[in-house]
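Risk register update: the risk of archive-format incompatibility is retired. Evidence:
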Amino acid sequence: MPSIADRSVEQLESKAAGSAGDSTPPKRRLRSNSSPMKLSPMKCKRVSVVSVAKLRGVEAELESRLEEVGGCSGDLTPQKRKLRSDSSSPMKPRPVSSPMKPKSARRRLNSCTNTSENGIEKYFSQKKRQAFVKPPVVVKPNWNPRGKYKEQMRIVKEALHLSTVPSTVTCRDVEQKRVLEFCKSCIEQEKAGSLYVCGCPGTGKSLSMEKVKQLLVNWAGEGGFQEPDVLELNCTLLTKTSDIFTKILAKHQPQKKANGITSLQLLQKLYSQKTQSDGTKMMLVIADELDYLITKDRAVLHDLFMLTTYPFSRCILLGVANAIDLADRFVPKLQSLNCKPMVITFRAYSKDQILKILQERLVALPYTVFQPHALELCARKVAAASGDMRKALCISRSAIEMLEAELRESTDKLNSSTVENPFSEQQTASALSLVKKQETDVVRIDHMAVALSKTFKSPVVDTIQCLPQHQQIIMCSAAKHFRGVKKDTTIGELNKSYLDICKSTLIPPVGSFEFSSMCKVLNDQGLLKLSGQSRDIKSKRVTLNVDEGDITFALQGIRFFRTCLE
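Archived output:
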């Protein structure tokens, strides 16, 4: 039987012979004509050679595929692949298949069989996807602060009390690391040094110093260094400011008594002699509320920092105070004495930091106490007013007491209604359902709002909120001017701060005479205090007579003043 290639060659040769016998040249036809186009003899020969080669190649590929399929289905012995030039073997007929519609990718994947005959494997058997397992959400039950569950109330209040020391100091990692690295370098080099830690009240300064002390003692023991002696002082408890030197000397030499000379002189002599300092431990002195050591001549404060400059001093001084500019005010004197301390500032807590600290205090409890929105409200208000974490803890405790009073009142009403009308079952059932609902209630946002209003709302706040705009600007400029430890200034200096705020906000300022008159009005209302006998009104001294936090809380609702006070 002739192959497909031989039959194709015979057809092409017959067409070429027919075209060669006809001497009349064929007319040129358009491509759109349905009749086939005739070729010249040379073109026919070239086409025939190319077509034969292509057909033979297709024939060889089909034969090899059919042989492979036949070998897989029956005989397991692989057959030899035949060359393309071998045309003696008959070609098996190609199976005719009906046209198929294109399938989508998903249908092609689903129609693919995973059998051992064709060796096709499914995609998902090659690459197994690992399912993401979400961590289990721990849902705490609401607490029940009534009856036999009164112990829960005590535990919650204790967790939010100021005296409860947390295991970790949250949101103060950077500051603690800087203080700890400073102390480590002093111990490694056996060199004295001084550091001043400042910040607003309630920003975690004292708590961080306690944590640094523990970390430093542990580090010295693990690193093979001699553990330092630690002396913690609260300067408000000293009878006299000079008693701080007596405390330091007693820690160095408990048996030593001052005979005719002061403790400061003995310390200066101790830190000046090499023989006395050999083998002596380093001493870490943590002086809290350092600004209480400020005297008229400031000698005690200067002498305390001077102890770290002696050649054989073993003292590491950490001074803690609320005055941010304490070191700046004494910089010229301290720098001339070569005892300018390193300064680390603890900034006020933000809303997110306050919320995180409150949540960490409550995370150990096995029940839910606060609504999330109630805690967020507390954090926002405290952060906007002062950023004092101690005030946030007190407000949270006060909100718990609001809930406690509400539950107590509902119980009293239930008892009174039962005694007066014991046969009213419907009334008793409704009261019992109300009490049962309140037993499982948490501290809601209305409880927190009442606690916040009791803490921040005062006649001073109401008075500031009712002032005219320019008088509010004067109070805002006074709060900025007296920020820190500056207590008083002149009306002329306060007027400059007022003009700066008006200029930055494009508000037309009032004249100097009208400004002085408004200061007198604020003095009559008890918000400012004017003093001095000078006839010139600009030279009179003015003092802020209210708390800065009250001014901030009263004006924080107005965006203009909130921007000025930041």
